[in-house]
Amino acid sequence: MVTVIPGSDTVSKSFSSSLASPLGAKLCEPTFKTFPDGEAYVRLPCDLRGEQVVVVKTMIPDQDSSLVQALLMSDAAREAGAESVALVAPYMAYSRQDRAFLEGEPVSIRAVMRALWSAGYSALATVEIHKEESLKHFPGTAVSVRPFAFMAKGLGLDSSYVVLSPDIGALPRARDLAQSLGASYDYIEKSRDRVTGEVSMRPKELSVSNRKVVIVDDIISTGTTVAKAARMLRSMGAVDVKVLVAHALLVPGAEGRLLEAGITRVYAANTTPVTSTMVSQVDVAPLAADALRPLLKTA
After folding, report:
1. What is the spatial distance between Cα 127 and Cα 35, in angstroms, rounded to a whole number?
2. Radius of gyration of the chain (CA)
3. Any residues with CB less than 8 A from the CB of 179 and at least 6 apart, and which?
4. Which member of 33, 131, 136, 190 is catalytic?
5. Active site includes 190?
6. Segment-wise mean pLDDT, segments of 10 residues, the chain, 299 residues
7. In the chain, where does the domain assigned CATH 3.40.50.2020 lie?
């Protein structure tokens, strides 16, 4: 049998409820508390002997305490006799530090993956990790779920849209979504004027004049890049600009930037807390359940 155990936050609890049903799993509600000195306490008051356990813990807000909670939940499940423990992390923290950019820096996602494995997780599923090659740092079975085609089904997106990624690195996301829609796709190219130093942006090849556009990326945080891209696209004749991301963080100031650029709605997966009324979330837990099934068989 499969038992799904949610983390303490509302995102993880909601995701767990949607995940358990398609897996035919039961839910186990843990006990959480914080000791006076600030340390975390976790107890799993369920019979987990011989169970395949799925811990659901998104890694935000407060990435550090979320990671510690995930580690403690795995250890508790193993201590309780679980046959296997898998982690579903809708948002995987530290994934953007996927290499040492400067001498002396860690590869943070590598450290996180190693810690999760050491705590007893044998399988891992996350939603649209920043770079899929980061999964190689997890010694067990791991998968990153790409949600965009699933999300697009309920948003009225079709082949009339041009799908754009904000840079060439995110082009595979645009390509996969475009192929599911039967649409055209491209990436936004940035260039710097050698005299003035001004940075300009434009689609690499496709025209957006009188076209509807959807910008797709893994994460939106400050909103700076998307806002500048939206203004550029409208100046080039785009009649509609939508934003589709896996993770909408929207730090302070982001909403204002987007509104000034004419973006009134951001469509995101339900992987993070909703921090703005402009964010509309799509439940991707059923998609995660589909990706998790083969992992449970091998965990």
Report:
1. 32
2. 20
3. none
4. 190
5. yes
6. 97 98 96 97 97 97 96 98 98 96 97 98 97 97 97 92 94 97 94 64 90 96 94 94 96 95 96 95 97 83
7. 2-145+285-298, 149-282
